[in-house]
Structure formats: structure tokens, C-alpha cells
Amino acid sequence: MTKSALPVDGEQLQRDIEQIALFGAVDADDGRGRTALPGDEANGEARDYLVARLEEAGLDVRVDAVGNVAGRWTPPSADPNAAAIAAGSHLDSVPRGGIFDGPLGVFAALEAVRAIRESDVSPDCGLEVVCFTGEEGTRFADGVLGSTVATGKRGVDETLALTDGNVTLEEALERIGYRGTGRLDASEWDAWLELHIEQNSRLEDARVPLGVVTDITGTVRCHVTIEGEADHSGTTAMTDRQDALAAASELVLAVERSATEAAASGSGTAVGTVGHLDVEPSVVNVVPGTVSMRLDLRSVERAEIQAQLDAVTSVLETVKDNRNVSTTFDCTYDVPPTPLSARCRDTVLNAAQDCGIEARTLHSGAGHDTMQVADVTNAALLFAASVGGHSHSPKEWADWDDCTAATTVLAESLARLATTDEH
Ligand SMILES: [Zn+2]
Question: Angle formed by the axes of helices 103-118 and 41-56, to 10°?
Fold first, then answer.
């Protein structure tokens, strides 16, 4: 039993998540999956269900130009001009994704606000439940679409004009009835909280239901090309080759080595991956002539990402000299690490302690909408423990009791943020 006075209804939360799981449900031998890409029919059905539930709970619903949905409760006790406290997540998924990634945070926020509304708490400000458009980056853009518009990093018009090669985001939103007006402005919020499934097994291993994120890792992505010479595999002597793939292989191992070293010596959060490799001509009897590869380097410490970059560029120089190949190296994507708000984190940790729910602090290797929102207001990211650490797969799972515990802490935290005189 948790020690919270807020009447959080875990069964209602479960019903909501299971209902969303029906929209775009996929066959899976193991687990339960869904496919709801931004702006598709299943995403539209999930949004309709959310809007109906927000209205049922008495919230004022608005939809902005890029389809971000917000439901606001302005308590009678609130100063109508006070900045609201917001919470939420997203309802789109990757193809064959899990049923918790996104919906948990949206419906936990709704359940939290509903519970506060039914309690004796008298908030000083409004509370807002939010669903951002297109977090996953499976259609129209690389992801965090709605939250980058809400934080002013991406313009409304350019976002609506994004295309999936067939239709624009605007057309897709119009089709499902979610091309709204105006722009949700996250900088107007006093604070933001997102509950998300962990997508890792650290909490399960520690037998703790709740995680509170301290920092979100920074990410640098680089594009490397290695140009050698394509030649006959039978007639080109080993001493005469300019094998682009053999050169690339040295770099792949260097990325692994430098990330392992950075992880062992520092914050323990460094990771480095070569996730994409194109080999040309990619024919069994031809020495590879060209390789194009993409690197993804992360850590909560910018210096640890830099150490990986330095190691990679130095190996690239060596490979160039030793193997007589030419190379290019560009880093086109560079998002710095995001430390999350101490005010929000402490509120969540204190709320967990007072509720008798065990929590631990950890970092997040994935960005989520919170990484965007954290740039414009105080933000916190809460994790509910994953079962087995699976994610972006029908195997993704969370224990319902853990979801309820995490939602209880979310509700307590929102109530506290909304009733202190800090804002
Ligand atoms: Zn997510």
C-alpha cells in the first residue's frame, strides 16, 4: 500500500492503456504490439479516445496547428494567470512498437490530474495533460516533432509542410481531424513532468519500480565515407589493395573501443555505435571500393563524447595513411547533454519517499520529448520499470502495479508543484 491521499486508480490507467493498444494492434507471438505512426488512422483513433477521456474528466481540450493535444484543468482555487504545470508524453509508436511507450505517460498524466481533482488539494495554478505529435520519428521527420514546435525550435509552417513522400503532415493531420490552430507554448509552463517506460532493465535489476532521471545523454552523429578502389578479388594481390571495408572495420572497432574506455573511466554513460554501413559495390568477387557509415556517440558528459570523437578521428588518420584510402568525416547532428531540473527532481524524489515508493536516480540514454521541453522550462523525466528491458517491440512490458506506483508519485509531484508558492 502506498501512503498517498490521492485516489489514483490503477485499474482505470490499465483500461486506458489497453484500449489504446487496440488501435493499430499487431499480431505478435510474444507480447502485445501496436503500430500507430504519426497522423495515421490508428494514431487518429488513439487521439479520439484521449480527447473523449479528457473531456469526460472535465478538462478544456485544445489542439494546436501541428496536432499537439492539451487538456487543461483550471481549479477554482487557481490564479487564472499563473503558469500551468504540465505532464504527458506521446501516442504515436514505431512500427510494431510496445503498448506502454508513450501512452503510459499520457494516461498517467490524465489519471494524476483526475485524482488531484477528486482530492482535497487546492492547486494555485492550472494543470495540463499533453500529447505531443510524432515523438518517434517514424514518419515526416526524425522525431520529437510536436515538442520541437512547442519549444519554438521548429516553425509551424515548415513542420506542416514536412512530407512522408506521399502526403504532408498537414494533410495527414487534416485527414484524422487534428490540424488545429495556434501553437502550444511549452515555455509558458511553470514545470513539465513526463512518465515513460524505462526501456532498460536497470530498475528491474534493482527491484525498484520508479526511476528519476538526472541527465539525458547528449548525442553526436557523424557520417564517414572511406574511398578505396574496387578491384577484382581474384587478381588483385593483397599488397595492392585499397579495401574500403577493411579500413572501415578498423573504425568500427575503434568506435567500440573508445566508447568502452570512455564508459569505464568516467560517468559510466558513454556509448558508441556504428549503426549504418553501406558497402559498394557489395559484390562477392570485388574488393570493396567505397564505404559510407554512420556513427552515434552519446554520454551525459560532453567531454566523454569529445574523447570518442578524438579517438575516432585519430584512427581515421592512421587508416588513411596505412591503407591508402581517402576519407571524409562530418558531424551533422550534435545535441548537448541535458541535465534535468533539480527543483522537479527533488519534488519527485521527496514525493516518492513520502508515498513509501522506492525510487532511484539514473540517466536516460534516449531523449524523449522532455529533452526538448527541458530547454524552456523546469522538467523532470520519470521511469516506470520495464520487464526484461525490451522496447520498440511487442515484448515491451511493465508491471501494472509499478505503473500505478509511478502514477501515484507523478500525481503527488504535480500536486506539490502546483501548490507551492515557488511559481
Ligand atoms: Zn516514447
Answer: 10
State in Å: Cα 15 to ligand 1 middle. Answer: 19
pLDDT at residue 246 is higher than 50? yes
Task: Report the separation in Å between the CA atom of 194 and the middle of ligand 1, taken as the mean of its atom positions.
Answer: 10
Cell numbers found for residue 412: 503527488
Mean pLDDT of all residues in 10-22: 98
pLDDT at 333: 85
Task: Report the DSSP beta bridge partners of residue 272.
Answer: 297
**Is 60 exceeded by the pLDDT of residue 223?**
yes
Apex CA 154: angle with CA 134 and CA 178, to 5°?
A: 40
Dist. CA 34 → ligand 1 center (Å)? 13
pLDDT digits (tens, 9 = 90+) for 23-40: 999 999 889 999 999 999
Query: 125 CA distance to ligand 1 centroid (A)?
Result: 27
| Distance of CA 313 from the midpoint of ligand 1 (Å) | 33
Distance 231 CA to ligand 1 centre (A): 46
pTM comes to: 0.90
Cβ neighbourhood burial of 152 (10 Å; 0-12, 13-18, 19+)? middle
Quote the CA–CA distance of 5 and 290 in Å, as a whole number.
Answer: 64
**What value does the mean pLDDT take over residues 154-175?**
96
Of 394, 395, 368, 399, the C-alpha closest to 381 is 368
Instruction: Calculate how far, in angstroms, residue 351's C-alpha sits from the geometric centre of ligand 1.
Output: 24
Separation of 135 CA from ligand 1 center, angstroms? 7
- Spacing, Cα 378 to ligand 1 middle (Å): 19
Ligand 1 centroid vs 372 CA: distance in angstroms? 13
Alpha-carbon gap, residue 344 to 317, rounded angstroms: 45
- The 8-class DSSP code of residue 28 comes to -
For residue 383, how many C-alpha atoms fall within 13 Å in the half-sphere facing its CB? Answer: 29
Query: Which of the 8 DSSP states describes residue 150?
Result: H
The answer to whether the beta carbons of residues 278 and 266 sit under 8 Å apart is no
Ligand 1: distance of its center to the CA of 239 in Å? Answer: 50
How much is the pLDDT for 150? 98
End-to-end CA distance of the chain: 32
To the nearest 10°, the Cα dihedral for 38, 42, 47, 53? -150
Task: Give 259-291 pLDDT, tens digit per residue.
Answer: 999 999 889 999 999 999 999 999 999 999 999
Cα(196) to centroid of ligand 1, in Å? 7
Q: How far is the CA of 1 from the centre of ligand 1 (A)?
A: 28
Instruction: Report pLDDT for 143.
Output: 85
